[in-house]
Amino acid sequence: MTNDVDTLATALYATTDDMLKEHPNLAPWRPPVGITPRLSDAELVTLATMQAILGYTSEAKWLRHARAHLRHLFPYLPQQPGYNKRLRKAAGLMRSVNRILATTSVWSDDVWVVDSTPVECGRSRETVKRSGLAGWAEYGYCASHSRFFWGLHLHLVCTLQGLPIAFALTGAKADERETLLDLLAAECELLRERPRQTLIGDKNYFGRGFERELSEHGVQLLRPARKGERERPGAALFKPLRQVIESINETFKGQLDLERHRGRTPGGVIARVMQRILALTAAIWHNDATGQTVLRSLIAYAH
Fold first, then answer.
1. The domain defined by 109-257 carries CATH number 3.40.50.970
2. CA 19 to CA 27: how far, in whole Å?
3. The pTM is what?
4. Domain locations in the chain as residue ranges
């Protein structure tokens, strides 16, 4: 099997289409009587994923590019308002597709990494006052880059290859530990067959009560020692693995333009972040299927 963007798009379309035939309830709701959309849900998911992989943050520019170069894959393409409307309604479908792809790839890895990364949503004071994200987006601080920002945090649990296992979008001030516990509680099936899962985090994932709750879930937490603590197990691994975590975040931000999402409403931000998570999962899934050495590489698809 070749490893290029057309082959990835074809494989993703076929997988999504088969999933929707088997589970039609996963498709976005639409009235039983009405006009059948000319762009199918499977084509929409594929189109949205390719947009993220190819680095188009503007939907209008992306559709112009698709009309000029991708007619062999998408005979019909909607106008930008219609594409935007359907994309926001398809966030749940993209999440379902993401899980299907993830569970057929390197899903069984017994070591996970956890971290959160800022998703900036505005810079000017006027934006903050008038934004539809007010009440969800907050002012927060990013210690990794020593900067304040207004927006959200994307919390990620990934394998060492970068495959997203679980994720959540919260306000910038949300506690990372509480969010992680909520994620594991909401998706309890993740740990049902993983009684000895190892989770690696940074110094912010601390606390006896927190570690006790993780232990009750069957999770062993490894993290660097905080100031005043004695050295913890696995200390020699943290420096190289910290680089892995930062590298995953950089894939989202540098290659998939996470902070240039252009979302202005909660639904818009959720759909665009989900686009990027699905894009990374699809790339890892396809690289694994085609026998690539570096599963998180997007080089073959970025043109």
1. no
2. 10
3. 0.94
4. 109-257
